Each structure stands twice: as structure tokens, then as C-alpha cells.
Amino acid sequence: MNSYFVKRTGRAILTIWLVMTLTFGMIRLIPGGPIEMLRARLIRQGVDPSRIDAIVQTYKQDPTPVYVEYYEYVTSLLSGNMGQSFYYQEPVSALIVDALPWTVFVMVTATILLFVIAILLGALMAYHEGTAFDTAASSASILLSSIPFYVLAIGFVVVLSYQFGLFPARYRMSPGVEPGFTVQFLSNAIYHAALPIASVVLTQAGLQALAMRGNSIQVLGEDFVRVARLRGLSDRRIAVRYVGRNAILPMYTGFLTLIGFNIGGSVILEQVFTYPGIGYYMYQALINRDYALMMGVFLIITTTLVVSVYIADLTYGLIDPRVQSGGQSEAY
Amino acid sequence: MSENKSAEYSDKLDRRKFVSLVGGTGVAALAGCGGSSSGSDGSDGANGTSGSGDQVADVTHVGYTNQVPTQIQYNPSNPTSYAQISQYLLFDRFANFNFSRGGFVPYLIQDWELQNDQNRFVLTLREGVTWEDGDSVTAADVATQLRLSMLSGGAIARYTDDIITEDEQTVVLNLSTQVNPRIIEFNVLGQRFMTQKQEIFQKYVDKFDGDEEAAAKQLRSFKYTDVVASGPFTLEEQANQQLLLSRRDDHPDSENINFQNYSFRYLDGNTAVHQAIGAMNVDSVFSVFAPPNVVESFSDAVQMETVPSKWGYGLVPNHNHEHAGDRAVRQAIAHVLDRKTIVQNVGHTLKKVPPIPVGIPSDDQKRWLEDAYSDFEDYGPESMQTEKAAQILREAGYSKQNGTWVDSDGTAVKLPVTVPSGWSDWITATQTIVDQFNEFGFDASVDSRNFSSLLGTAWPNSDFVLSAGGWLPGGGRAAFPYFSLQHQLIENFRGFTYNYGPAASSRGGTQSDVTVPSRTGSGSMTTNPNERLTTLSETVDEQKTRDIIVEQAWVTNVDLPMIPVMEKQEQTFLTTDQWDVPEQNAVVSQVRWACTWLPRQGELKYSG
Amino acid sequence: MVKVKHTESDSTTSNEFEFGTTSSDVEVTTSERLRDIYEEFVYKPGLVAWDDRRTRIGSIILFAYVLIGTVGVWLYEAPATNQDPRSLQPFEQFFVAPLGTTGSGEDVLAMAIHATPAMLIMVLAGGVFATGFAVLIGTVAGYKGGATDRLLTTFSDIAMSIPGLPLIMVVAIILSPENPAVIGVIITINYWAGLARSIRSQVLAIREHSYVEASRTMGTGTTRIIVKDIIPNIMPYVLVNFANAARYVIFAAVGLYYLGVLPTSVSNWGIQLNNAYKQAGALSGGGTFYQLLVPMAFIMFIALAFILLAQGMDRVFNPRVRTRMAGESKSESDDDTDTAAPTEVMN
């Protein structure tokens, strides 16, 4: 276990480093740089063309070879410095510290919620397999899953925000609300996050519920459940003790990876809701060619993904000893 | 300008009268600049100014900004997060360009004039203007701001030797060469807000004595947030979601303002703005993009004002291309384009049809071409003139085969139109154009590419046949055709290497002569646009100015170095449920921006 | 964004259900082999799949899209500016533009229809790339084991750890692809990784089976073992995931077009959404909601088709879900009778 832990940790770190290097190189391949985007922005602001040249000239730096830039980036990263955002003129770390909690709040809440709903609904469907309820719930699950979450999000914005004015269409909170542990702030933040969370939960819970249903039905057919039945244990006890646990177990890895995926998906979701989280900044950084910010967001999302898979791998082995993930096999 | 004004300006007891005189001065000063359509007394107000015992209501006029309020800074030499709207209230403008009049309305600078054989440009300040800390706004402040602009590479550096203050109210630019006064006017007065108070900014001027590059860098990176206002409002608060300004009572125009606060709410994106103004959650918005169906959905209490942006969508041909470089093809293209249909497809509230394709903005064409206007070819602004186009092409040796035009070698006329992807209005226009081309028999297609790769590589490297591009340079100064003709003929500022012969070498040209049919009668005319525009920039003679403009405009009309398609309009919305504003399209509203200019003029008042 | 269905994919397809055969060294002609492949990979699974109601509906919807993308495009006039009056509401002039027109007079339905072929190509390319590559990496890693396994697993781990959507966006901006097949591949540029991982773990189990060992001891080559013994075993699973990948391609592609990251030269439902949202002011109550609704419906139904196919196939190929509670197996539900079918067909 210990050597596996060390190896697994080493691989996680290696992965983060490789991804960072890869993205660093890739980002430099994007056509047009921050200077060109600055010029474009100034043009659109109607700044005097000759002044634009002067401004752009002063921003220009001597081109440094990519490997030097890379070396500088890695060294400053090791000292905790993620660089300066060219577009926002703020330290990248400050932007990310400001944005990340919001994205995590929305996406983690959504993912937990959707799994809770999926597990309950899936278990119910399995229990009532073949009934009208099962058919209806299965159909609804499938139908909802066929909507991309951002399409539902757009629908929400149009109908619930614009037509009926029930929910805010944008932002993390209302003007004038100060962050802090106050009822006003918390309720306001939840109010603003309601639609983003709902659009993820509603579109993703369905397939998970169907998976839970499948797992449960399978478990119900296993020998040990039959034995339990023969022993005269109550249905409730069987459902919770045996079926629930064994059916939920396979979904555990899926849960952690889905969080990672959803954080990546925040790029679209936060754009639809103008919700300034890391996905929102990712898009801004991309269209403004803000290399440092883009790197920062990539790094954060990558780390989240790697760490969640890492946790999944490590803990899954603990929960279900039969599985030795990442185990080696004899070479053929 | 009349001399007796200054005596009355100092008479602080009669401010009301003074205000109306300012309006009057503007009219008098600009009367020579051609007629304005909506009557010359627009600025004198429709509502009538009420008595001086006006009470100031404790209400807030809510405007909008699309910048994050906490990040806004006010150093005009620093392009990052520079304010986009609040500075219009916090600081006094040197002068305000009125699009309807085609000229500047004096404001902080009350008078400007070329003196002493045109080697001095003299600015006279309005009296009684103070900073909010109590200091007077003096010539030294104005000089500081102009010096910083000059030192950091502003256009005035090209012809200004130095800037001196003659007395508290007078600033003088000593000129090194003769310059067309209108150019100086636009360079000195256009879009300048009295921001850089000497007390705060002098140290940056001094730094330029040493390492200029370092000084420029320091000036450029200075974030000015703890501002000292010179305008009728002061900066109260920069919160997360809004900027709050409150009324000063010691500004000369304070009496025109009968409400206490002006806030700018942060709204991100057009739809957010549509929703806010549609629900009347804000009282005014500026420079927003609202298509016709959205405007129609607004209540009657929302009034739209449009001002020309003096830039817009045109087609930039690559003059090295075998077909796009052929004048006959360009003329055929201009005939084929149904500009009105294109404008209506994009949204008639957003764009305007240029009456004639020429290197002068739509609203200024008649003003500058005067009697010659009727000689110009309009290429059918509201229809596809396919007959004329076909005739021109046939005369030039083209023929139509199987529905497609081919040149004398049998090569089909293939016209991909390059457009930045994601610019939805431009893409709609391009699609319409491509459909019109294909209907006529050109082999056209939409070639949408990333904006930054266009700006970074495709445009500088002439990697296009026809590209969507701005046919005007934009901003108030484009109203003086020198700038727009320069943009089309010599040196467009978007960096299109379009290989037009007369253009500058940086744009692929050789500054060559161009020969076009004569405008009056038969024969032809050969001219060198570069030389003529240089002459234009240096002459102080009004008639010569006009002659050269007509002549070079004719070149652009016949030779079509760029093909104008539509001109963008800037939309401003005012609400009338609680606010008195001038009637729609009043001359006084034809500025950037009605929502911030009208309060100073006593034309936007709280009515309860 | 669109999740991989880990929960499902983690469950191993049981072995009682095997496509194909044990290895046979009998030489066959090419046409025979082709017929074999057809039998094994198309006909039999098709027959099985058809027996499930969901697969049937999914196939019908998908077939409808294929019709739209081939015949429909040919029958229905392509969208063009000013082909019809501007801003018609749906059904306002049914025979001119049944689902209305945009502000520039383009037929909304025509736009949606003519976006279909590119979308189908994208889906096919993305699906084939994702599943093909995943099968390659997963089977080789799982079967070979050892250093090869470590190398390939690390490779797919890295691919999996790059945030999918942001990565695709960056690559899309770098390449600004217009060819739908290329777009499909870009979208699945790291989608295969998760799939490869679970295929690997299945192969790990399969390779211990006696017949695989038999083949190996008989000296059969690795490639042959993988192709003849292993792939047929995981084929049902791969097919299910092909459908999932297809849905992912649709969601991601439309999303990228919506964000304006991909070149807008071609028509796409995402571009329609974007135009309706940003330009036509569908949000601001300009009465242009239908311009959102039409592309939304097109996206939903094709996604529905793939979900139904995936669900149905998963169910059919995966008999574990057959067993019922308390032994009181009521066979009246369609599903139960359907799922009995495969054994008959296959054995």
C-alpha cells in the first residue's frame, strides 16, 4: 500500500508537470498575442491611431526564446507566483483566488446534488422496476439527458430570468451585497447560483439515476441478497444495508471525475450566466490572449482533475479492497 | 469668436445667463461649418430652464458601464481600464464635438485660434472652473495635459515645438510647421477631458527630461483612482457593481443639474443592457448595440438617440489581386451591392447607408462636397444595379459563362470575402454581400477567420481578396475628410496591406499617381493623392482645403480604394418617465454622449 | 462539461455474451472475412439492438437525421439572406418559411437542416476516433501489460488530466478547423482517455481467460489475439461508448460554435443559438425565441437518439440487469422479454 501510495503520488505530480509543459507550449501557438488584442481593443475604443502605436510600442518587449520564458515561468511558479494578467493587470493568483471558490461552490454543489438525486431516484426505480413509475422516471431521465446543460441554461435565462424575472440572469451576487457570513450574503449567493446549479443537476442526474437503477437491479439479483431475503430480513434493511451500499460503490469514482469534468465545463456555463468564476476568466483569457491567466486557469483545473482522480484511486482501494487500481500485471 | 464674452463670464452672479451664452457662442462659432438639419437653436433647449431657486432632488440618475467599477482608473495616458463614461461627468471636456453641426462646441476651452501667421495656436480657458479641492483650473493644468500627450507620442508632437502658458487662462502651442487648423483642432480638442492636474501630473512631465522610455512607461502604468474632479460631479464610491458620483455645487454648470447623484451600474453584455433599459431599471445607457426588434420592445418612455460613429463596414480589396485589383470589378461590386438591404439585414437601428461610396462619412458628404455632390456616382444605394455592373464588366473584357463572370483569360471571378469570426453583425453583412455577389454571377464565399490572426497575419501580409474592414477611421475627427481620405488612400490604420498604388509603402503602395476620368466633362485627371493630402494637411486656406477634398474624394469615388457599405451608428437611450430630455434628434443630443452632456446643459432634469 | 458515463463504463460486460469466436486458424478469403465482419459487428448486434424498444426509437430518430442530412439537404432550399421576408414568425407564412425567418430573411428551418450533414460527419469522425483510439490504447495496454502498460496508462492519464473543454478551445483557436471531420477529431482529442482506461481494465480480466491463454501458448501473434479474441469481447461495450462519444461530440461542437470559438463559415446549430442570443435579441423579449427553439430541438433530438441507443445497447448487451427482485420475475414488461433475445441469437 505504501509503495503504491508513493508511486501514485509521484505519478500525479508528474502528470501535473507534463500537462503544464504541454499547455505552456500550446498556448504559445495560438495566433495573435496579447499586444495585438490590446491594439484591437484600443481601436474599438476609438483611441487616436498614432497614440495606439505609441502605447503598443511601449508594451512591446524584446522577444525571449520560449525555453527562457518557460524556465522563468516554472521558477516563479515554484515560488508561488503565477504571473501577472496582461488583460486585467492583476496578479493571476489574486484573480484565481477570487474566482475559484465560486466555481467550486457551483460545480461541487451541483455534482453532489445530482448524485444524491440520482441515487435516490435510481434506487426507487429499481425497487419499482417495471411499474409505470419506473417507465416514466426512466423516460424523463433520458429526455432530460438529451439536453446539453448550456442549452437548458439558455432556456432558463430566457424564460425564468427574462420572461418571468424569477431568478437573476447573471453575476455571483446582487450589487451592494458584501461577502461575509451573513444571511443576506449567503441567501443572495445561493439565489444567484440556483439556475447554474439547476441546469447542471437536471441535465446530468438522469443518466446517473439510470446507472444507479442498473446497479441496484444487478445487486438485487446477487446471491447474498437472496440469502438475506431468505433469512427474512426486512426489505428496508436489505435496501439500505446491502443493495444501497453495493450499488453506490461503483458510482464513487464517477462522482469525483464528474466534478473535474464539470469544472472544465464551467467555461460555457459561466459564460451563459456571466458568472465570474474560473471558467469565465478562462474564456476572457483565451479571447484576449492573456497567457499568464490562461496558464493559471489551466493549471488550476488540471490540478483539480488530477487530485480528484488521485483521491478516487487511493480511496477506492480502501473502500473496496477487491480493487487494486493501477496494479501491475505481468508483461506478455 | 466674440470678445465681449469674457467680461460676462467673470460675472459670476449671472450664471444662468452665462450658460445660455455658452450655447450661443457655440452656434455663432460654428455657423460657418455648413447648415445643420435640425435647426441651429437646438442647444437652447426645449424645456426652458427654470428659475435659479431650483431645488436639488435627492435622487440618483442610473447609467451604465461595462467596465468592472472597482478596476476603473482615470489616467488618460494609461489605456488599461481607462474609464469609458464616468470621466464625461467627472472632468470638463476641452470642447465637445457635435455631429449634427460637424464642429466643436466650446466648453472648458472657450476659444481657439491660429495666430501670428499661423505659427501659434492659442487656447482660451473658461473662467470660474475649479477643481473639487478648490484650486482653479488654470492654463498650467491644460498645458500639463497637452505636454504629456505630446511627450507620449500624441499627434500634436508632429508639429508642436512647445507649449507655454501666457496667463492663467491662455495656453499657446508654438508650431514648427504650418498645419491645417482643423487638424490641430481635432488633435488638441478632440476627446480630451481636463484630468491631468498639474499638481499631480507635473512630476511625470519632469521625468521625460531623463530616460524618456522609462518616463513613458511610468506614466502609462500610473493608475489614477483618487481623483480630483474638474467636472460637475465628484467620485463618491467605486463599488463592485456600480460607480457612484455625486453633484458638486461649485462647478459653473452645477445649477443646471437638479439631482444629487449619478451612478453607473455595471452591466456586462448587450442583453444585460437591453434588459435593464427595457425594464427601466436604468435611466440612460450609452453606446449599446440594440437591433430593431429589441428597440421596438422598449416602452415609449425610452427614447433612442443615434450619433454616427464615423466608422463602419466596408470591403477592402487587395489591389494586387487580378480581379479585386481591377477598377472595373470594384465598380461592378459597388453597383451590385444593395447597401440598403444589407443595412436592414443587420438592423436599421444599428447602421446607416452611406449615400455615396466615397472617402467621407455619410453625414459629412454634403457638407464638404457642396455643389460637386451631384457629380458623384452613388452606385445605387438601395438596389442591385446589375445592368450597370454587367455593362462595366463587359466593357472591361469580362463575360458571363454558365452564370459566372469570367475574365478575358476565361478565369472565373472568385471573390472570397474575409471577415472576423464572431463579429455577428459583420458576418450577417458579409453573408448578404456574398449572396448578392453570387446572384449577380461572381463566385463568392464567406471566409471567416479569427480576428487576431487577421490583424496579426492575414491583413499585413495581403492574404485576402476582399476583406471586411473599416472604410472610415472612426471618431469625431473623421468628420474632417482629411482623416478619412488619408485612411482610404494612403495609410489605413488597421494595417491592411492592400497594395493600392497611391498608398504608403507600409500599406503596400508606392505613393504613385492615379488617373481617373475627370469629374467635370471629358478627359481624365492625374493626381498624386499623397502629395495632395500632404498639401491639405499644411494649408490654412479654406478654399484650397475644400478643393483638395472634393478632388481626392472624387478619386475615392471612381477608383474605390475601399468600397463603403455601411456606417455604424452609436445608440444612446434616455428614459423620459422621470427625466425631462430634449425631443428626439435634437441637435444638442448629437454628441458623445447625450446622457452625460445633457445634464451639464440643463437639458436632462429630474422631473419627479 | 458533458460527462463520460463512468458509472456505467466501470461495469464490465459479462462474458456470457461474446461476439465473435474463439480463435481459428482456418484461412478465409477476404470476402468471407468481410462477411464475417458484417455478421459479427453489424448484423448480429443490429438484430439484438433492434429488439430493444429504446434502440429501435433511437435508430429511427438517427435514421431521420441521416435522411435530413442527405435527402433533406437536397430537397430543402439552402438558407440565403433575403430569400424570404425578414423576421417571419413560425407558421406566419407556412409555405414560405414554416419555422420563420431571421432578421436577414434566412429560413430558420433551412439553416437547421443544412447544418445537419456537417454535424453527422463530425459525430462520425469524433466517435470513430475516440472509440478507435481508446480500443487501440486500452487493449494494447491491458493485454501487453508491463512497461507498455505503464507507458500507455501514463499517456492516457495525462490526456485525461487536461481539462477537456478548455483544451479543445485552445486547439480549435490554433487550428481554426473548418472540415467537420477534423473538428470531430479535435473535440475527442482527449475524450478517448477515460474510455481507454476502462477498456484496459476489462482486457486485464479477459486476458486471463483460458481461450486467450490457449491462443498465446499456440504462438498466435499479439495483434491477432487482440483482434480475434479480445476485441470481440469488448465490442458491445465499445458500441455503447461510441454512442456516448457521439453525444459528447454534439454537445461540445454546438457549445464551441455557440461560444464563437470555431470558424463561422459553415452553418451550425450553435451559430444559430449564438445569433439568436446575441444578435436577434431572443433574450430581450424581441419575439425571436423561436430562433433559439429550432436549433435547440435539433440538438435535443439527435442527442436523444444517441442516448437511447447507448441505453438500449447497454441493456441488451448487458444481461445483468435482467434479474429481478424477490424472484417473482414478471416477464410482462417489454424489457424483460427483449433482453432474453440475445442469448438465442448469439449462441
UniProtKB/TrEMBL annotation, chain A:
GO biological process terms on file: transmembrane transport
Topology within the bilayer: Multi-pass membrane protein
Keywords: Membrane, Transmembrane, Transmembrane helix, Transport
This protein's record includes keyword Repressor: no
Keyword Transmembrane part of the UniProt annotation: yes
Subcellular location: Cell membrane; Membrane
Domain ABC transmembrane type-1 per the UniProt entry, residue ranges: 100-310
Superkingdom of the source species: Archaea
Family annotation (InterPro entries): MetI-like, MetI-like_sf
Main localization category: membrane
Transmembrane segments annotated in the record for this chain: 12-30, 102-127, 147-169, 189-210, 247-269, 291-312
Entry's Gene Ontology cellular component terms: plasma membrane
PANTHER family, per the entry: OLIGOPEPTIDE TRANSPORT SYSTEM PERMEASE PROTEIN
Similarity section: Belongs to the binding-protein-dependent transport system permease family.
Name of the protein this chain belongs to: ABC transporter permease
Species of the source: Haloarcula mannanilytica
